[in-house]
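Translate sequence into structure tokens.
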Amino acid sequence: MQGNKVATGSLVIIVIFIGGLVLKLAKPVLFPFFLAIFLSFVLYPVLDFLTRLKIPKAISIVFILIIAFFIIYLLGVIFYFSGKSFASEFQENYSQKISSILASLQEKFKLSGLEKNPLDWVGQLDIGRIGSFLLSSLGTFISFISNLFLIFIFLVFILAGRGKTKAKIKNSFSDKRGSKIIDVIQNIDSQIQKYLAIKTVVSFFTGVMTTLVLMIFGVDFAIAFGFLTFLLNYIPNIGSIIATAFPLTIAVFQFENLWPAFWILVILSAIQMTMGNFVEPRLMGKGLGLSPLVVLFSLFFWGWLWGLPGMILAVPIVAIIKIVCNNIPSFQFVAALMSKE
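Result follows.
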């Protein structure tokens, strides 16, 4: 019995290791696939609505894909070129400002007579490399287009297969068992749709309001920061902090006094708190109640696997796993372990 437990534990570790390795190596294909799955859950209600209007399914799918493609392409192009502009501007202008401020602070510490200067590392820091790193992280426009094309290829097949699962289950199981399985699948489907749709809508309006606030104050790259806020809003707590810190840092170096940065901090924090603590819980209802430790672990795991895109998808992936486990009796203990209560 003891030997069986050791063998089972070893097998689980090996499977997790191989699974992680496959996920890391297969990122160019799996990331667009995962993104297509999330988009499909957001688009399912639109497809169901058009189907109820007696519009043929093929025409509905083509219409949805065309609209979704132009929206995602437009947002992607705006963010991509804004990000490129920000990285170039940071490398040329902001890196010099940051270096001069750090150098002046270093000089003040030297004049204060401290034996050990806490900013000695500044001399070894090349701020200009941050801009180069940002430029390389954004990749090429061809890469962006190829990923977008792959996402929509997956999306075509996922939307085309909508509604066929129910017929397959009825043909594969008895009436009683088939009905039970269909009820579980429909429950999982509706909960995932609700979670992703509400999260996307709340994130979108948070990003729009952030963009408007930054534009009013005249902060550079307001659109890029607004889109970044939209993406980072999928990461609870940590995402909102990072989304506020980036434009705040630019505002500090852009303006000659700290008052604009102070008011930007106050307004953006108010937006994040209102949307995250009042609007989203009211729309979501009871919510998923994910454990902070589970969220943190998933962020590290998917961040290690796929970088920043993985961190953005981390919490939705964990939320979907919890929803699935919560609706299957034999896996409800997993959902309980993932809960914060």
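Note: The chain is about 85% helix and 0% strand.
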